[in-house]
Design goal:
By secondary structure, the protein is of the alpha/beta class. The protein contains 7 helices and 9 strands; from the N terminus they run αβαβαβαβαβββαβαβ. The chain is globular and about 50 Å long.
Length: about 250
């Protein structure tokens, strides 16, 4: 069954008629190695003309990955927690940086993650902190800027521009994967409705127009359906009011 893109097309037309531009960014999580899936991600990013902010797990990141990224400048390294290890009890949702351990231990890991990736990736690393499972306890936020971070990225539309002083909040908004069931693509019509409503909320003033709209992917677990939908959606957005956006500290 072919997906019905008409509602999204109408919304994109409304943006263009109003003279609006959509800042579009892409975050992909869980990289550690230069895998065939990462190469596929790099090729797709290059073909679409939209860079990927690659959230790299510091504890397991390899020099091989650093070498690969030197030849793929459209893959932008950012910090994905420390070890992508769940510390929450079975009764809670998974979290590496939830309030299940002393804040000092969590801050030490966040600091070590930034240090290790700076060592591997040098000036190409962007000081953005991406907590695994998009969860972080609020008691960490006031300290992250002091560790050297300038941005925090989780999931769902942000409620404020800054998570804490010196720390921009730049979230992602659409994840195409059905994590709770098939682990393949969520129903296309559901995803199209979600994007359409999110863009309408921005256009009509119910959501932050200034926040870049973020696509969230996980290259290591993509199947053909997920790759295909991601490509089709990004291409459609870029053919309309979307313009590619990448993070640097001046953009916060």
């Amino acid at each position: 069954m072919t997906a019905d893109w008409s509602a999204l097309d109408q919304e994109l037309n409304a943006w263009q008629e109003a003279g609006l531009a959509l800042l579009l960014w892409w975050r992909d999580d869980d990289a550690t190695l230069a895998t065939p899936q990462l190469q596929q991600l790099a090729q797709l990013s290059d073909g679409l003309g939209l860079p990927v902010h690659l959230a790299i797990i510091p504890k397991d990141a390899t020099p091989e990955l650093a070498g690969y990224l030197r030849s793929a400048p459209h893959l932008i390294p950012v910090v994905h927690g420390w070890a992508h290890q769940n510390h929450a009890p079975v009764t809670d949702k998974k979290a590496e940086f939830g309030a299940h351990r002393p804040v000092e231990d969590r801050l030490d890991e966040a600091e070590e993650g930034l240090r290790r990736l700076k060592e591997l990736f040098g000036a190409s690393l962007r000081p953005m902190f991406v907590p695994p499972w998009n969860r972080i306890s609020p008691d960490m936020l006031p300290w992250l800027a002091g560790l050297g971070y300038s941005a925090l990225s989780t999931f769902t539309p942000r409620s404020q521009q800054k998570a804490a002083p010196g720390l921009a909040q730049i979230n992602t908004h659409l994840d195409p994967i059905d994590w709770k069931d098939s682990r393949s693509l969520l129903p296309e019509d559901q995803l199209i409705r979600q994007v359409t409503q999110q863009l309408k909320d921005r256009r009509e003033g119910r959501a932050d127009m200034r926040e870049p709209y973020g696509i969230l992917t996980h290259h290591l677990v993509h199947d053909t359906a997920i790759w295909s939908f991601t490509e089709a959606l990004i291409a459609r957005l870029l053919a309309g009011p979307a313009v590619p956006w990448t993070y640097d500290e001046r953009s916060s």
